[in-house]
Design a protein that fits this description.
Shape: globular
Strand content: under 5%
Number of strands: 0
Order of helices and strands: HHHHH
Radius of gyration: 15 Å
Structural class: mainly alpha
Largest sheet: none
Length: 127
Amino acid sequence: MAGNIPRGLEWAFLIHFFVGAFLGVALLIFQEAILGGVGWPSHDDVTPRLLGAALIAISTSSLLAWREKELEKVKIVVEMELVWLAVGLVVSIYGVIFIAINWLAFVVLAMFGVFFAAFAYFYRKAY
């Protein structure tokens, strides 16, 4: 399907970039404070930093997609976002139920849910 990227999808890419980049950098630098705030125990310094690096990489793909003008060229990015957000949503639900009983864990869960809903909506609408 040829066409321009819907304005709402552009906003979803841009907001996802800023949120993901911010959290990714925070996990690289302040992993103990971030994990402690969410209520997740940290047994090593490498795993949270790897998550931070992954967040930066995924959010950078959102930035690159935001800069693109043709809808078809960002389809694979939207599909990747949907997979990432769906898995993150399931893991966050598991974490809230079985591991972290903390308000910040619910914020993380809500962010995954909101972004998943946004990307799923625009995917169905555009493709």
